[in-house]
Amino acid sequence: MTITPSPLQARLAAVNERIAAACVRAGREPGSVTLVAVSKTFPAQVVRGAAAAGQRHFGENYVQESVEKIAEMSGNDGVDSLIWHFIGPIQSNKTRPIAQNFQWVHTIDREKVARRLSEQREARLPALQVCIEVNVSGEASKSGVNPEELQALADAVATLPRLRLRGLMAIPEPTTDEALARRRFARLRELRDALNGRGHRMDTLSMGMSADMDAAIAEGATLVRIGTAIFGERKHA
């Protein structure tokens, strides 16, 4: 008897197939890219459905919502193995719940936030895996450190206890121009490689969403943050 997958399972499988195909085109191993399913605004039961289909990494943008969701899911079969990524803007007065509930933070863009995360990460927990967000497209409305200020911030973050600097993250401007998208993603890779040339040991590029993940994978993404293609259109919080 053939079991028909649910719409969520079918969309998740299609995204994984798309990632694998993009890796093949780029001459990369499919396992070199990790899918972070962006579950912001969706309830815990939807996350549970994705977890039941094998998804392990989930991304959240809103502190209050995500902490409640993580608490609701804790203790359920299989969900204690989930890995939670904070991928939204960080207010300095909201760092404690982020430090206490997440395994990854992608959006550090100033030293004050990094220091608070380090101070508020409990010693019983593994080091918080972090990325610095870089404004690679120069948009005034976008979060992220300017490339010219990146080295100083990376040097500062790398010295903080309870944090492990893993790499860089970017959200370039939306575009249908694939060549432009690839240039933005290539810029982030070049910045990461330049920092590694100065002694850092970063292995992560968090870049690429539903509309542009193929271009991001072609330029070296190791984490892609996909929401709409998995969960459908979301209600804006």
Description:
This protein has a single domain (7-231), classed as Alanine racemase (TIM Barrel, Alpha-Beta Barrel), CATH 3.20.20. The protein is globular and about 55 Å long. The chain starts with 6 loop residues before the first helix and ends in a 6-residue tail after the last helix. It has helices at residues 7-25, 44-52, 63-73, 95-101, 111-120, 147-158, 178-197, 213-218, 228-231, and strands at residues 34-38, 57-60, 83-86, 104-108, 128-133, 163-169, 204-206, 223-226. The protein has an eight-stranded parallel sheet. 41% of the residues lie in helices and 16% in strands. It is of the alpha/beta class. Helix 4 (95-101) packs across helix 5. The longest helix has 20 residues, at 178-197. Helix 2 links the parallel strand 1 (34-38) and strand 2 (57-60).
Summed up, what is this model?
With 237 residues, this protein is α/β, with parallel strands linked by helices. The chain is 41% helix and 16% strand.
Low-confidence stretches: none
Overall mean pLDDT: 93
- The CATH architecture designation is Alpha-Beta Barrel
Largest sheet: 8 strands, parallel
Name the helix and strand elements from N-terminus to C-terminus, one letter apiece.
HEHEHEHEHEHEHEHEH
Class from secondary-structure proportions: alpha/beta
